[in-house]
C-alpha cells in the first residue's frame, strides 16, 4: 500500500489521495486498507518514515553537528543537496518528511547559532524548508544540465540565507 500511495502522489503531486483511491491503486478492498492503517494520515506517515530510511541509507545522516559547523555553501552540499536529488520520482518527498526536516534544520541551527532565540530558530527552519521545497519543484521540472543549474541556484540561495541568519560569512 505504501507503493500505491507513492504512485498516486507522483501522479497528483502534493494532492493527498483518499483511502478508497489508495486501496483501489493497491488492488485491495477499503476494508483491507483499514486492517493496516487507521486513515490516510497514517499511511502517509508510514511512507514518510520509509523515505527517510531510504534517504539516510543512500546518503547517511544529513543533519549532523559536523555538517552544522561547515561553511554555509559546504553545508548545503552535505545536508540539502541530497534532498534535492533524492527520489525525483516522488515529488511529495519533502511534504512527507517535513517534520524530520524541520527538526534536523533546528538542530543544526542550535549548533551553528546557539544564541539564536528559539522562535527565530523555528522561523529560519521553516524558511529553509520552504526554500528547499520550492527549489526542489524547480529542479524536478528540468532535466540534465538545466536541473543541475537549478540545484546550484537552490543551494546558493539556502547557503546565503543561512549565512545572513547565523552570522557566518559565505566562503
UniProtKB/TrEMBL annotation:
Domain HTH tetR-type intervals: 1-55
One of the entry's Gene Ontology molecular-function terms is: DNA binding
Q: Which Pfam families match?
A: TetR_C_15, TetR_N
Q: Supply the alphabetized keyword list.
A: DNA-binding
Q: Which Gene3D superfamilies match?
A: Tetracycline Repressor, domain 2 (1.10.357.10)
UniProt DNA-binding residue ranges: 18-37
Q: Report which superkingdom the organism of origin falls in.
A: Bacteria
Q: Which InterPro entries match?
A: Homeodomain-like_sf, HTH_TetR, TetR_C_15
Q: PROSITE patterns, alphabetically?
A: HTH_TETR_2 (PS50977)
Query: What is this protein's record name?
Result: HTH tetR-type domain-containing protein
Q: What is the lineage of its organism?
A: Bacteria, Bacillati, Actinomycetota, Actinomycetes, Kitasatosporales
Amino acid at each position: 500500500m505504501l507503493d500505491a500511495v507513492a504512485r498516486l502522489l507522483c501522479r497528483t503531486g502534493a494532492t493527498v489521495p483518499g483511502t478508497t483511491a489508495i486501496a483501489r491503486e493497491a488492488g485491495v478492498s477499503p476494508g483491507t486498507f483499514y486492517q493496516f492503517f487507521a486513515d490516510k494520515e497514517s499511511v502517509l506517515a508510514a511512507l514518510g518514515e520509509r523515505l527517510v530510511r531510504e534517504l539516510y541509507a543512500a546518503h547517511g545522516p544529513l543533519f549532523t553537528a559536523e555538517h552544522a559547523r561547515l561553511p554555509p555553501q559546504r553545508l548545503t552540499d552535505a545536508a540539502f543537496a541530497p534532498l534535492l536529488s533524492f527520489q525525483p520520482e516522488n515529488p511529495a518527498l519533502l511534504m512527507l518528511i517535513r517534520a524530520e526536516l524541520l527538526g534536523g534544520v533546528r538542530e543544526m541551527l542550535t549548533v551553528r547559532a546557539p544564541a539564536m532565540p528559539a522562535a527565530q530558530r523555528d522561523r529560519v527552519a521553516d524558511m529553509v524548508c520552504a526554500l528547499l521545497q520550492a527549489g526542489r519543484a524547480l529542479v524536478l521540472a528540468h532535466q540534465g544540465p538545466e536541473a543541475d543549474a537549478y540545484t546550484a541556484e537552490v543551494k546558493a540561495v539556502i547557503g546565503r540565507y543561512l549565512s545572513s541568519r547565523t552570522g557566518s560569512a559565505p566562503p
